[in-house]
Amino acid sequence: LRPIMFDTKGGLAAAAVGAASLAILGLVMRKKTKQQPPPDGELVVLPEHLLHEAATLAAGAFAESPSYVYVAGGEVETFPLLKWMFYRNFWLRASTTCNRAVFENGRLVAFFMFVKPGIRRPTFADFLLAGIARMPFLFGLNTVRRLFQLIDWFDEQDAQMAKEYGPLVHLERVCVHPDFQGRGIGTKALQVALREADAEGLTVFLARSSN
């Protein structure tokens, strides 16, 4: 999209640039629509307006994970770091079917990411739109360095698994709200997703943290 420039000293040129900028923003921003409450007890794609809620749930579930404690490095609090990162992670996948969730009475009770091999990986431009460039200023360069070390390690494990098993579905950020644990909600949701993977002949890769 190229703005039309006018040879004037007035505000026409600025108006043209401003109009073009608004048009570009309109292409980037997703239209907000009124959402219906998700059905209870069923595995559904997470509505985009609930990304913050999912990020909060996942951050609480993984705040003591050794991998993310390492990323925080004792320099920043793990929970706000993860909430910030996870929201952007989920936002980057919001236009796909990756973000899966279960609701009870309109409340988010379980969440995970189900990333199939055909899903397009976010580009550098996508990361910029998600606000990743702010991370060093918010959490420090050392935190960013440790995060990329962790990503590199997971990428190595992923490559080894792919050589052995072929295309993989990545099962990530699996969490159930503490108030709803022990009821089989997470197990039931995962069974639905695993049957989906089986039907497509895909292997599921789940990385588990341990002490």
Provide an overview of this structure.
The protein has 211 residues and is an alpha+beta fold. Helix content is 49%, strand content 14%. It is built from eight helices and five strands. A five-stranded mixed β-sheet has the order 1-2-3-4-5. Strand 2 and strand 3 (107-115) form a beta hairpin. The model is unreliable at 1-30 (pLDDT under 50).
Question: How are the strands of the largest sheet arranged?
Answer: 1-2-3-4-5
- How would you state the average pLDDT, rounded? 84
Ends distance: 52 Å
Q: Describe the biggest sheet?
A: 5 strands, mixed
Radius of gyration: 20 Å
What is the oligomer described by this structure?
Answer: single chain
SS-based structural class?
A: alpha+beta
Note poorly predicted spans.
Answer: 1-30
Number of strand elements: 5
Number of helices: 8
Task: Give the helix proportion (percent range).
Answer: 40-55%
Strand content is: 5-15%
Instruction: Note the overall shape.
Output: globular
Summary, kept brief:
This protein has 211 residues and is an alpha+beta fold. It is built from eight helices and five strands.
Secondary-structure blueprint:
Layout: H1 12-28, E1 44-45, H2 51-62, H3 66-72, H4 78-92, E2 99-104, E3 107-115, H5 124-130, H6 135-139, H7 141-165, E4 168-176, H8 185-199, E5 203-206
Parallel strand pairs: 4-5
Antiparallel strand pairs: 1-2, 2-3, 3-4
